[in-house]
What we know:
Blueprint: E1 7-10, E2 17-20, H1 30-43, E3 45-48, H2 55-63, E4 68-69, E5 76-77, E6 80-88, E7 113-120, E8 128-132, H3 133-138, H4 142-149, E9 152-156, H5 164-169, E10 183-187, E11 189-191, E12 198-200, E13 207-210, H6 215-229, E14 235-238, E15 245-249, E16 253-257, E17 266-273
Parallel strand pairs: 2-3
Antiparallel strand pairs: 1-2, 3-15, 4-17, 5-6, 6-17, 7-15, 7-17, 8-14, 8-16, 9-10, 9-13, 11-12
The structure holds succinic acid.
Amino acid sequence: MRNSKIEIRPSSGALGAEILGLDLATPLDTASVGTLKGALADHGVIFFRDQSLKPAEHIAFARNFGPININRFFKTDAAHPEIAEVRKEPDQAKNIGGNWHTDHSYDQIPALGSILLAREVPPRGGDTLFACMAKAFETLSPGLQRTLEGLRAVHSSRHVFGRPQYGREMNGRIGNPEAATQDAIHPVVIRHPDSGRKILFVNPGFTTHIDGWTEAESKGLLEMLYQHARRPDFQTRFQWREGSIAFWDNRATWHYAVNDYQGERRMMHRITVEGVALQ
Ligand code: SIN
């Protein structure tokens, strides 16, 4: 594939766009990187097809967007610690990311996003759903919006990566439970650093409670927000092929890896790019 004029083709649904005209294995010029940053801010997740990237090229592409986060929990590609393996083997029942979540919300400075490259995909199934958290916030009533803007929420990795049983369920693809010490407190509504949109920043995977409230008190409000944010009209769905890439903005989206391909192998390479402090 040769680089040509970049085309941004919005996906069906509330977010997402396919980017055409770029070969990501070649170094990108400043203008192209700027176009991709703009597309990510506008659409929340950008998709590429038919990319043939060696691990070093995947890493070089990611470095255009910031420093790389070396994952504390995932098994990494043996020669490239920057690349986390999101792998499910045919004999494995559960998958990584099979619930709505935002990666790294438990970090003090949550990651900007991840660049997931499909290395091996099942013959059918294994799609990923994405949901737009700006739309989720904008469609709440002004009264609830004001209330949420005064709240902060606690996010943790302990109840997920800190459970040794979770590592076993993932066939040992996830480990290091003793590193699950991160808790972070973030505003329930953040201002996106690039798009300037207000974003609902709580998620079912890692948010444990509203700061200053008990978990029991928080449950009702969080469940109501999650039910609202899961609406199909806030989503898009990506069907993978080998060589497909999804690059999502963690601050603006949730994602959900659908686990409907029992007995098949799915193997993805994920690079996570560091973010900036949230406001
Ligand atoms: C993830 O949650 O990072 C993995 C998403 C996927 O495998 O589709």
